[in-house]
Amino acid sequence: MTTLHGNWLIGSQDSVFFLWGEQWQGKELSETKENHPFCLESGALAQFIQKFSPQLDCYSPESIKLSLPSYSPPRKKYFLPLLSGQILEPTAKSLSWQPWQVSGLTFSAGMIIQLWEKLPLAKAEFIGNDLRFWLYLHRWSLDLLARGKFLAGINQGESCWYPLLDSTIDRTRLAKFIQTIPPVCLAYQENSEPQTIILDCLKNIVDARLRQKIDSTVNISPSLMVKPWLQSLSGDHHDIALEAKNLQRLENAYNNWVFPIQESLVNGNNRQLIENQYRVCLSLQPPRLGTAWKLTYYLQALDDPEFLISAKLIWLEGKESYHSYQRVVNNPQEILLKGLGLASRLYEPIRISLEQRHPEECSLDSIEVYQFIRSIAWQLQDQGLGVILPTGLTAGSNEQRLGIKIAASVTPKKGERLSLTSLLNFQLKLVVGEQEISKKDFDKLLEKKSPVVEVGGKWLILQPTDVKAAQAILNNTITPLNLSVEDALRLSSGDNNLIAKLPVVNFQAEGALKELIDNLNNNQGIQLINPPREFRGELRPYQIKGVSWLAFLEKWGLGACLADDMGLGKTPQLIAFLLALKEEDMLVNPVLVVAPTSVVNNWEHELRKFAPTLAVFVHHGEKRLKGQAFAQEVKNKSVVITSYPLIYRDLSTLEAVQWQGLVLDEAQNIKNSTAKQSQAVRKIPAGFRIALTGTPVENRLTELWSILDFLNPNFLGTQAFFQRRFALPIEKYGDQESLHNLRSLVRPFILRRLKTDKTIIEDLPEKQEMNIFCGLSKEQGQLYQQLVEKTLQKIEETQGIQKHGLILTLLMQLKQICNHPAHFLKENSLETSQRSGKLLRLEAMVEEVIAEGDRALIFTQFAEWGKLLQTHLQKKLAEEILFLSGSTKTKDRVEMIERFQNDPQGPKIFILSLKAGGTGLNLTRANHVFHIDRWWNPAVENQATDRAFRIGQKRNVQVHKFICTGTLEERINEMIESKKQLAEQTVDAGENWLTELDTDRLRDLLLLDPSAIIDEEETD
Asked: Is residue 433 over pLDDT 80?
């Protein structure tokens, strides 16, 4: 993986951009000397950037000496440059700046902007922080051009285009760029100043962009002297075709013309633009005893809003420059008057104050203060001026206004359990902040007849609508209100809600309601339940917490989303929860579990494994029950399992049953709220609802809304409201306040633990092995059954070595069918995953591995199947997938292992044939191991697993063994598991023992269970 870096280099003649690449794999240190050992060669760099801009070919190879953060490896005397994203080992020596010779390419301004516009601005892994900084500057230059912030210029006899930074907004943005430039950008050249390098780059790229866009054919009278100048403003030639005398006259005339805005032009010698990073700031001062409101004038530093110089001090000093705390402000009086002149056009009191010789402030009455706060302040800020308002009057979350405090409790009716719809007992009180206001106090405020009043030392605006609403509360004339537990949860989250037309600024819950809210906001306080006695297995501490959390939310009738990382055992937690209900005699009706088709068989096995006392029924297949027959069959069942496609196909059958609970596994399957299955699950009646998913949000926030709306209908409002209130502000504008409010709203209903959590790591074993049971597609089932019947007939007619050969060939072909029909039929591609239950499940699990930032090994004993998988998964996941087999060349093999093991941005999935990759490799970067087909020899499989689970592995390893239900894979797995503890087991030698079975026993082992076949109707 290559990471691109670069910086603007100021030259005596022309400035250029230097681009270089950093690769994860370095050269031998003995060969590098001072050469950067991880630097990409210029030729390889040129090839790399061609992927983004194929037409870009005007660049020059260059080599420069660059000081970079470097470290000394443990027990070494030499230094190495620190790579992007590299985290130093604790034993490595501290960082120091060391010189390195770096090879790269240089680009003119006109060429580099062509590359910049092709590179992503988002957090792409291959873009270094230094290069990303210049990409942001490039976007700002485009913004300046779009707003017309440029001016034609003449500089030392040549034409040019100047960026024009004549607004405080752009000056502020420049200051921000100067503040945030990465330190490494100043290490490319000696004595680099951030402001100088930024302005030089900005000037050059604006000039280059305009020259590319402007037509050289200028329709101006030939007699005009300006025509040669204007014609030279396009294309690559900057020379102005005029005699020296006329050129000097033109330049003098130009300088006189631009003199009023000279300091706003970005050119190489404009020190005023660099040094005078100050703006006018207006501070609203509350009245003291017997005085009026004051609007006081200041100069404010753009890079430090806390640095203020009062107008009074500026006039007293009366100097051309002001010195304070190592800062120098040139022409402070001029800056002050210019800013006040801009403000005077928006606000009359400021205009009047400018009639004074030395304006310092203006006085305001209460109406003018109200006008300033509600409409003028934001207009001034929009023009780039600073505004400071008293505490409580600042628009937004800190603004003081009338509100209400609610004290609430809940008492369930006799024989009725609490739920979201349970009504509250509550009282409303009028408050400002934390201070309650009585009717008498409020009347006194109104007597002042001022829209801006002081309460408890804080100022607030009395808005007419708020006054009217407050009077209704104090006079008990409001419309009768009903508040529910759902309202209480929303109010306690801090989301701004209006009750009786006033914002709720304080919500106090009491009794059981307080317990609910406290436990939802901090699930650590939930009382832990004892592991169910009938649970066959061990629940780890974090899993007991998960079961207790599910039980707590079910008690209150709240939907729950268990969103633990893959491998943390969401399924066992759900099963234990069902057993806990059973122990309390609360499992009176069946629970419906809806899962992806490829997982239905796995659910059946997990339930029989962990909870054999639960009566389980699987609803699938061509001959599945419907209508009254189905209702009668499931009446005495504990759990019914079905698939997402059947939810809407058999909706009339399923919604006729009164379900105790409805559980969605892989709940991201309903992320599209308009899909048939998403709408169908909402129509099924259930006492409680639970969603299991490792990825509650994959791409859009509306996916989260869809899951939460299924769990707790209408809690987040309609989808249109959610889109307007949360999705749009957060996704498009990065609104942090909306994000905070959304998190507060959904946090009580989502429990997500990560494998990287310290408490979880301590609970987990170093290696977790789990069987993944998959069904067969109809095509797989037919191929499997036909092959078994055909070959068994031949086996009955043969003896000895020929019989052994037939059986071994049959076993191999059945494995191929279980993998995918295309594998058995020798097809060139897998076409679709719908033809294979294993592939469906593998795709889903690998997607989750990548989403969680993990890495995985996939082992197969078939090289041809591995190649098919590589091609298919690369296309499906849009990720590079490595594949190592016996035919892989040694050089390629070493490179693959190095990339997977050491490249931070390397491929995350590595497919290996069992024989080629099963021994001798160290692949501890992986924390997932998939055995997609089985060797039926635990020793061989364990050897392969140990590629990841060995010395050097710092994370828990999850081993996933794929098994097709109802086939020889399931039956042989049962035999292996039953004999695993024996010192010697006949199955340990691989498959040869199967050739010794007689035909009847072989038939029992191989025959297909028809219930394992996935109906085509059920294909997701």
From this structure: no
Which is higher by pLDDT, 898 or 817?
A: 817
Residue 744 sits in the same domain as residue 776:
no
Domain boundary among 722, 738, 761: 761
Flag whether 393 is in a domain. Answer: no
Residues 749/741, Cβ–Cβ less than 8 Å: no
Do residues 408 and 377 both lie within one domain? no
Full domain range(s) for residue 451 = 402-520
Work out the average pLDDT over 231-239. 84
Pair (742, 818) in one structural domain: no
- Contact residues for 806 (Cβ-Cβ < 8 A; gap 6+): 791, 794, 795, 798
pTM of the prediction? 0.70
397 within domain boundaries: no
* Beta strands across the sheet bearing 928-931: 767-774, 957-964, 928-931, 856-860, 909-913, 881-884
| Residues 445 and 384 both lie in one domain | no
Write out the two tokens for 145. Answer: 């051009």
Tell me which of 366, 388, 410 is where a domain ends.
388
In this structure, is residue 395 part of a structural domain?
A: no
List C-alpha distances in Å: 159 to 56, 89, 142, 230, 268: 26, 54, 21, 8, 14
Nearest alpha carbon to residue 1008 among 787, 824, 855, 694? 787
Helices (H) and strands (E) in the chain, counts: 40, 36
Q: What is the pLDDT of residue 884?
A: 92
Report the number of distinct structural domains present in the chain. Answer: 6
* Positions of E strands within 266-313: 278-285, 293-301, 304-310
Mean pLDDT, the chain, rounded, equals: 85
Q: What percent of the chain has pLDDT over 70?
A: 90
Q: What is the pLDDT of residue 984?
A: 38
Strands (E), 169-292: 278-285
Is pLDDT above 90 for 352? Answer: yes
Q: Is residue 380 part of a domain?
A: yes
Q: Are residues 921 and 789 in the same domain?
A: yes
The reply to whether 444 and 548 lie within a common domain is no
Distance CA 568, CA 582 (A): 23
Span 936-972, pLDDT tens digits: 777 777 777 777 765 556 678 899 999 999 999 998 8
| pLDDT-based confidence at residue 89 (cuts at 50, 70, 90) | low
pLDDT digits (tens, 9 = 90+) for 664-708: 999 999 988 889 999 999 999 999 999 999 878 767 889 999 999
User: Are 14 and 49 part of one and the same domain?
Assistant: yes
Write out the DSSP string of 361-377. EEEE-HHHHHHIIIIIH
